[in-house]
Design goal:
The complex is a heterodimer of chains A (249) and B (582). Chain A folds into three domains: 81 residues, Alpha Horseshoe (Serine Threonine Protein Phosphatase 5, Tetratricopeptide repeat), CATH 1.25.40; 69 residues; 60 residues, SH3 Domains (SH3 type barrels). In chain A, 56% of the residues lie in helices and 15% in strands. Chain A has nine helices and eight strands. By secondary structure, chain B is an alpha+beta fold. In chain B, strand 8 and strand 9 form a beta hairpin. The chains are: A alpha+beta (249), B alpha+beta (582). Chains A and B meet through helix 2, strand 1, helix 4, helix 6 and helix 8 of A and strand 33 and helix 4 of B.
Chain lengths: 249, 582
């Protein structure tokens, strides 16, 4: 059964249609339920070749966690969280995975208004604010037309107010959609994948070692210089490390 | 061998003075060969020994073996520990010309009136010059003194990690008097060792023949060894200090001998180690016994897990049965019945658990499983108890039960795990698809705006056109009037008098009939005057015009030019039409 599942994954996973994708997802969930996490991971990975969603990335993270691959679990939870910010169960699993990481860092307080607000600001998925802006545009135009048609003073006043409101909604939606888009384009954060990596003060092999990071730690990529990457640790420390031991979220 | 010098001396003195006297003598007649397996062309030594007697020896049937040398005869008289022994021995050196099995028959000795025979000896002759007894040859190399040497021997030279084997430290001696002063056993690195209690040190009852020489043998020490790591483990030689030939006359000589060193090949256990593996390697059994399985709440349950067999039982740890978390559990009581002897470590270890269920209900304990390695099968074996089922009845009612009931407790977080995967529709989207900035998005944003602009433009034109509503209406009414009076206008242009008035009358009548939905016959000047009241003076004028037309049709009366009449008709109809439309 397991080999069959893997063959299935390798054979048709790459070019699966929507129906096949759902069938693959179902068989992966069944494999996971049986405890065959490796088979489930192979199936989910094949789905992830050309498709993505927060739920899929979350499931892949779970498979990695069950296979004791904490850094990859963290990577996929972070990716899932990027697609669906503030999602409760992703955050819970990420917290648990992070508790297995060797490095404990006091994170700098990030600007956050709490899960609910984050979720609202980012939208349920990548396109939510873009869709909202389309609706707002349509409503604004309809209201403007109605206002142009109206004859009575009171109706015209109400419609004008509604127009202003719709315009504000439109402006907010476009701004947030733009912000989301920019957020998805610039993946500055990365997860350390090497079991142990030395962060140096300069992009040279002989430079002073500032920190030693272990797998699963999160860093922000600042710049690239030859074979070295400048990173900022979550506690604010900055140093250089080889990019091979990093995978971008 | 410990000898007390005082006793020794006393006995020696006694023996010297009463030399003629023989202490209780035992008559024995033995035949021995130095080895039972040898190759064609090699020699073996056959020794016939008659102890404590004199008599005629008859040569045994050699069964096809050929005498190379001999017989050599020797006699000896020993006086040890107050015992005198006299031996006569006859030694033959034998060989075989052909491989096969040979039997050396019984030798006979005529002692007094009786006949003593030896046991027949079977020997096996191998082809070629293959050396036999390599192990002994090795021990021979180790020995420096042919008369005294020590050997460390292991029951096996290849085993698994944790498998038990016995190391024996043996002393071989040909001196008559020997005293073991001390010994130093090697340091055992990589082993867990258990001493085997040998009791009082003593010589083995018989003599042992090695390379044709007979030795007295004493097992100094036996140890039970459990190799703890894989690889080649080395045991250094043991050192023995002996004093030999001490007698009344001499202080003897102190000899220090070193035994051989031993190497042991230790294999690691197979890699697929089960999670519930205990340290034991060997043969193990598990027995789970429970007391009554139906108890009342707050009464103790008694569960015993007993391991028995031949293995390193001391390494077996608490199997930790998974008791329900609301059972009150205590550390198990461990009782051992372990014996360590030359056969290895065996016996039993028992864990006794005392648990107190606090709540009534049906409880089932998952099977207790323990794995061990069985070197004979070369595989891990799992011992499993059945599922244990307990029935806990509600405790005693009344005050005591109320008191003993524990306080309500918070739900305990026993363990943490990730939340389960999301199943069903995962909401999959093509990789990298994004609405913002895509062409459908741009189209969706511009389309409503473009529609709005179109709408505004259309509206603007529409408004411009509808800015003067009265003019529009007048224009329309005028158009209607001119349409109605088209025939009249044509007649006017042709200058036909009758035709003009007929057409004009028809147009006036027809317009009124159409406007007020009247039958053509109903239209008269009076009706027109009544109906057109809302149009002010137009009513009178219209009626007057109708009457004037009638008059002009039947009498040649024309008070005004025809053009003027036509213009008035046009003006009237347009006015009525315009008013009606407002």
């Amino acid at each position: 059964m397991r080999t069959y599942a893997i063959i299935l994954a390798l054979g048709i996973g790459a070019h699966a249609s929507a129906g096949d994708a759902q069938a693959l997802a179902d068989s992966a969930a069944a494999a996971y339920a049986r405890g065959e996490h490796r088979a489930a991971l192979a199936l989910y990975d094949s789905l992830n070749a050309d498709r993505t969603s927060a739920a899929l990335l979350f499931n892949i993270g779970n498979c990695h966690f069950k296979l004791n691959d904490v850094p990859h679990a963290i990577l996929y939870y972070e990716r899932a969280l990027l697609l669906s910010p503030g999602a409760d169960d992703i955050q819970a699993n990420l917290d648990l995975a992070r508790s297995r990481v060797v490095d404990r860092m006091n994170e700098l307080p990030a600007f956050s208004l709490g899960g609910g607000v984050d979720r609202f600001l980012a939208g349920a998925d990548n396109d939510q604010w873009a869709r909202r802006s389309l609706w707002a545009m349509a409503v604004l135009c309809a209201l403007a037309a109605a206002w142009r048609m109206a004859r009575h003073g009171s109706v015209r006043h109400t419609l004008l107010g509604a127009c202003v409101l719709a315009f504000l909604v439109l402006a907010t939606s476009v701004a947030l959609a733009y912000r989301r888009n920019a957020e998805l384009d610039t993946r500055v954060q990365a997860i350390v994948m090497s079991p142990r990596v030395e962060v140096r003060s300069e992009p040279r092999r002989q430079a002073t070692t500032l920190f030693i990071l272990h797998e699963g730690s999160k860093v922000s990529v600042l710049q690239q210089e030859g074979d070295w990457t400048e990173v900022r640790l979550t506690n604010g420390g900055v140093g250089w490390m080889p990019p091979a031991s990093l995978v971008r979220i | 061998m410990t000898m007390r010098s005082a006793t020794h001396t006393l006995l020696l003195l006694l023996a010297l003075f009463v030399s003629a006297r023989t202490v209780a003598q035992e008559i024995a007649f033995t035949a021995s060969v130095d080895r039972t397996t040898f190759a064609v062309g090699e020699n073996i030594k056959l020794v016939l020994t008659l102890t404590n007697a004199r008599g005629a020896l008859t040569e045994p049937d050699l069964g096809g073996l050929v005498v190379v040398q001999g017989p050599f005869e020797s006699s000896a008289f020993n006086f040890i520990n107050g015992r005198s022994t006299s031996t006569i021995s006859r030694t033959y050196l034998l060989t075989a010309t052909r491989p096969g099995d040979y039997t050396i028959g019984a030798a006979k000795a005529q002692v007094g009136g009786g006949l003593i025979t030896t046991e027949p000896i079977r020997v096996h002759v191998e082809k070629g010059a293959a050396a036999a007894g390599g192990g002994q040859a090795q021990s021979q190399q180790q020995q420096k003194d042919r008369d005294l040497f020590a050997v460390i021997s292991l029951t096996r030279n290849k085993c698994r990690v944790g498998e038990q084997l016995v190391a024996t430290y043996t002393l071989y001696c040909r001196y008559n008097a020997i005293e073991l002063v001390g010994y130093e056993l090697p340091k055992l690195t990589g082993f867990w060792a258990e001493e085997i209690d040998m009791g009082e040190l003593q010589w083995e009852p018989g003599l042992q023949t090695i390379n044709g020489l007979q030795y007295r043998v004493a097992i100094i020490k036996k140890q039970l060894l459990f190799p703890q790591r894989p690889g080649k483990l080395h045991i250094d030689p043991a050192t023995f200090t002996c004093i030999v030939n001490r007698s009344f006359f001499s202080r003897g000589a102190e000899l220090k001998i070193r035994s051989n060193a031993v190497d042991l090949e230790v294999q690691d256990l197979p890699v697929n180690k089960p999670a519930d593996l205990c340290g034991a390697v060997g043969d193990l059994r598990m027995e789970v016994t429970t007391g009554p399985t139906t108890v009342k709440a707050n009464e103790a349950l008694d569960i015993k897990v007993r391991f028995s067999g031949r293995a390193n039982l001391k390494l077996i740890d608490d199997p930790k049965p998974a008791f329900p978390s609301d059972f009150e559990t205590y550390e198990p009581k461990v009782s051992d019945k372990i014996t360590v002897n030359t056969g290895g470590m065996s016996g039993s270890r028992e864990f006794q658990y005392l648990v107190i269920p606090r709540h009534a209900g049906e409880y089932s304990l998952p099977p207790i499983t323990v794995s061990y390695f069985d070197p004979e099968k070369g595989a891990y074996q799992q011992l499993s108890s059945g599922e244990l089922v307990f029935t806990v009845l509600p405790g005693e009612g009344g005050a005591t039960a109320t008191i003993s009931r524990p306080d309500p407790t918070d739900v305990q977080q026993l363990d943490r795990d990730i939340r389960y995967i999301r199943t069903g529709d995962l909401g999959l989207r093509p990789m990298g698809s994004r609405l913002f900035g895509s062409w459908p998005y741009v189209a969706g944003m511009t389309a409503p705006f473009a529609l709005l602009l179109l709408f505004l433009f259309w509206r603007r034109r529409h408004d411009a056109e509808h800015a003067d509503v009265a003019a529009m209406r007048r224009k329309g009414a005028d158009k209607v009037a001119r349409q109605r009076l088209k025939a009249a206008a044509e007649a006017l242009a042709r200058g036909e008098r009758d035709g003009f008035y007929t057409a004009l009358a028809q147009a006036l009548n027809g317009y009124l009939a159409d406007r007020y939905a009247l039958a053509p016959g109903e239209v008269t000047a009076r009706v027109a005057r009544e109906r057109l009241v809302p149009h002010g003076d137009a009513a009178g004028k219209y009626a007057a015009l109708m009457e004037a037309c009638e008059l002009a049709r039947f009498a040649p009366v024309e008070d005004r030019p025809r053009q003027q009449v036509y213009d008035e008709a046009v003006e009237l109809i347009a006015r009525i039409e315009n008013n009606a439309r407002a």
